[in-house]
């Protein structure tokens, strides 16, 4: 599966993106379409470490 994410906002568009905050959730969509979620800091770090080149990582932030 190929993802086109050009229209999504990038974290670099903000001065600060609070990755470690509890209200930021990571969603990973694998090339096979499997979706996994990470809420805690340890889970997020593990997800980033296991992220493959064909996966899409989204960060959902309820902030501004």
Characterize the structure shown:
The chain has 64 residues and is of the alpha+beta class. The protein has one domain (17-61). Helix content is 16%, strand content 25%. Strand 1 (24-29) and strand 2 form a beta hairpin. The model has no long low-confidence stretch (mean pLDDT 83).
Order of helices and strands: EEHE
- Shape estimate: globular
Task: Please identify the oligomeric state.
Answer: single chain
Secondary-structure-derived class: alpha+beta
- Classify the helix fraction into a percent range: 10-25%
What fraction of residues sit in β-strands? 25-35%
Sheet with most strands: 3 strands, antiparallel
Number of strands: 3
Key phrases:
64 residues, 3-stranded antiparallel beta sheet, 3 strands, globular
Write the layout of secondary structure elements.
Blueprint: E1 24-29, E2 35-38, H1 41-50, E3 56-61
Antiparallel strand pairs: 1-2, 1-3
Short description:
This protein is of the alpha+beta class. The protein has 1 helix and 3 strands, in the order E-E-H-E. It has one domain.
